[in-house]
Amino acid sequence: VDMTNVVLPKEATPRWAAEKGQSAYKILSQWSRNAGVDLIWNSQFLVDLQNDVAVNGSYEEAVQEILSQYRGRSAGVHGSLFVDSVSGKKTLVIETNRS
Asked: Which pLDDT score, from 0 to 100, does residue 10 have?
């Protein structure tokens, strides 16, 4: 069978969306669950989204879009994504700081 002219469908690009005022913890929990990523919220503070978020792209791009809302603010929110070298399992660790 000649496959030179066969066009295979591309995988759909994930869409990540959330509205201003929603809990960043709840949104990141949901997105992480959907992406198969463990989430560790290592903070006593909960913060709300400062702006609407709509990303057509990877989980990492969507998380970065949320975290960018808090740069330079007193409720700084920082995230680190770790990948287990053996299993490939991802874990997102979120920390906040207050001044």
From this structure: 64
What are residue 96's DSSP bridge partners? Answer: 77
Is 33 among the domain residues?
yes
Look at the block and give the residue holding tokens 């070298």.
85
Tokens of 89: 């399992």
Q: Torsion angle, CA of 8/90/59/78, rounded to 10 degrees?
A: -160
**CATH code (residue 32):** 3.55.50.10
User: The pTM is what?
Assistant: 0.81
Residue 3 lies in a domain: no
CB 68, CB 79: distance < 8 Å = no
| Gyration radius of the chain over CA positions | 17
Quote the CA–CA distance of 94 and 81 in Å, as a whole number: 9
